[in-house]
Predict the structure.
Amino acid sequence: MSGDIFFAIFGGLAALTSLLVVLQRNPTHSALFLVMSFLNVACIYVLLGAEFVAVTQIIVYTGAVLVLFLFAIMLVRMEDLPEMYGGHPVQRFVGPILGLALFLEILAVILSTVPLGAAGPFTPENITALGGNTQALGRSLYGDFLVPFEISSLVLLVGAIGAIVLARPDYTASRDREIGSLFTISLGHPQESTIATPSVYTVRRDEQLILHAEEETETAGEAIKR
Amino acid sequence: MENFLWVIPAAPLAAFIITLLFGKSVLKSQAHWPAIIGAGIAAVCAWLTFFQVRGLNAGEALNNHLFTWMNTGAYSFDTQQFKVAINLRADHLTALMLLVVTSVGLLVIIYSVGYMHGDGGYYRFFAFLPLFVFSMLMLVLSDNYLLLFVFWEAVGLCSYFLVGFWFRRESANKAALKAFWVNRVGDVGFGLGTMLVWTTFGTFTFTDVFGQLEKRAGIGGDITKGTITAICLLLFCGAVGKSAQVPLHVWLPDAMEGPTPVSALIHAATMVTAGIYLVARSWPLFDLSPGARDVVAIVGIATAFLGATIGLVQRDIKRVLAYSTVSQLGYMCFALGVGAYIPAIFHLMTHAMFKGLMFLGSGSVIHGMHDEQDLFKMGGLRKQMPITAYTFLIGALAISGVTGLAGFWSKDEIIVGAYHAGYPVIAILGLVTAALTAFYMFRLYFLAFEGTPRYDQEHVHPHESPATMTVPLVMLAIPSIVIGALVGIPPDKGAIHAFLGKAIRSDLFESHGSVASSTTLTFGVLSTLVAVGGIFLAFAMYMRLSPNPYTLGDRLHWLWTFLWHKWYFDEVYHVLFVKGTLAFAMACWAFDRYVVDGAVNGVATVVGRSSGRLRRVQTGFVANYALAIALGAVLIVGVYLIARGDIFTQLFG
Amino acid sequence: MHPGLEWYLSLSAVLFVIGLIGVLTRRNVLVIFMCVEMMLNAVNISFIAFGRAISSATGQVFALFVITVAAAEAAVGLAIVIALARRQDTVDVGRIDTLRE
């Protein structure tokens, strides 16, 4: 009975805060409501008996990811303008309709199906015998799912490196390139010999190309001015 | 019996490959050596083979199995396996053909060294010539119809290459194409004939086909006379095309666009005689079909007569010779038709000698006159080029049938044969043609070599050709004089008859009884008379101008025009086939343009337009793509629900 | 623990659809990103609910993996957003159309 009440409270709050994330104009506000939403979902996890996942959720999402979001919001020039809110008219119109349709369909599936497979070994009695839900999860994670678990650490590593490379400012990238070219020993031919000495013809052609490009740029510029 | 037949075609083939690979880069102006050496080896081996074959008994042959070409399963229970072997076979007929092909081929190749000197396509020429020699040798060495057909086409291809040798000349291209296409008409018949041979006999091999005839085509046999006649006529179709018989003779005169040595080798001595060879090779079939033989005889005499009449008025030195070739091929053809196979081959051999000689002589004239071919712009050339003139005179005497020379013996035998076999009209027409032949040949000789010069003496200085050209002339002149007497005496019982009689054992001719010596004598005198008469008339008209040929031409203007236009064959063909084909092609083009292309273009337009619309879907906005993904999700779940079908009973039932 | 499986799944569906609507209608790429995280969370609820319903720890294991991947994704995604904002000077998906043709 208490489960029902808590489910109603946390579920309702999760849905509400999620809705507010979507509806808030200010991204900072959205982020804060997202924290609320995640916390409520964490509570739902607790209701489901997944304490470890709940704690992880709080630490990773509300602790790390949301801080990342806030950093990003601060780093990016804030465009908290009315036109940033809501999308293209078609999008704004079609999006909710599609969402509603999907919701109804999923609901229909949920209500019309009993999709239960074979029962696993972690019945409440077994979990209690093991010493708790976290112990049971640990056994599964370090037993059946050892290899995927290790690979997921690689995913995190690659994600971290990728983030660093992607978010690096442009000027550091160009400087790194210069340093790299200075300290790279070329194994091929010297660069002079790979590029053929331009003949009169190619030079003329290149000049024409440049002239042509300049003309084009000029006309484009004029068009923009107009 | 041990033999080395494979060497004979292999040597020219090797020469072809070597010249093709190295001719342009390495050999250059020495590109003729592989051809000469290859043809020389072939000639030596051909002579050795000839002596080997001479020791064989009747019906025997040398066999040289190289490899199996095709070997497929039987396509039904009552037929044999489809098996074709590359098998070389040399009997007496082949041995003789080998001699003709290799010796004339060798002389022509040597001659070409002088004639083609300095030509831009020198190496190309000396690559194609051995290729032709190879194909021709394989043609006569084939032991079955299919292989013969293949090389029949191969020589046609070489002819195409060599007629169109100066491919920058439009007329040469047209002539090459014409030769190729006209030959196709006949080759369709030949191809069908080959198929009919297979379906009838279940084999392509000559010996097997002929071996079955006795049992299956006789009384009570399962092969009807009609089938045999059909096979004969279809095979003869190919011969009509290849040997330039009426009505497919039109390509041969145009083929003179090729270099003169090519005309001598391919279009006088060897390739055009392939049709004669084919019929002679198939003698057991033709023996059984009098109807087919009659067709052959009529076509042959028509060709002989027509070719000779057209030859009367031609101005181009090579065209006169070309029509003469058509006419002489007609002789061989009607000889085959009346059953005189051996005289036909005899004439083939002598003709190869003297016509090759005359073509090479005309080439020498053209060479010395700086590419002048018009007879009426020559004259008196005997003083400047004596060797050419005298050898040409020998050739002209030989073809005219003056007693003692090569042409006399073979041609006379053919006419006697026609008379003896019960075709007196053909014999008389043959005699008339012989008179015409003598006339136009000496017309040519007198116009070119005698009388006063009609060319521009200030600018044109005729000169005798180099030794590489005159030596082959002399080499051909000798057999042109003696070969007839050497192998053809006494008539019908000479060395050549004994030799060929072992391969062609037709008793068709003998069934009329032996030729009376009085008949032989009568026709010998008659043909000598008509030959001398023709020569005398030519002398009177073109040396003494009485009767004056020019006023005669004006008086008989209609006849002259008719002959000048070559009996209007080309014109009729143009209207019938070229225009008809063009009209049909135009209709096809219109269909293609408006119906097929219309459909294709319509589809393309529709696709283009609709994709132009669809292109706008690719907005580049991520949000739109997200929308599409969501739509996809909705659709997938929807399809899942609908596919389950019982959703409503589950929900509300 | 009394609510049935279908309740949890329904809650998951609600959160998922709200996230989806956010992705479809918002223009700020950061908010869109938040909505994606929300959808991942919704899926996690489904995983855990299913796992509990069949007495298996696999649901939770998968939820953990999803969280891991989501963390990596957030790092990379936000880096992309920052690079994008630096280059295009906007976080408005309505103005980023370099994918066009």
Notes: Chain B is about 70% helix and 5% strand. The longest helix of chain B spans residues 569-615.
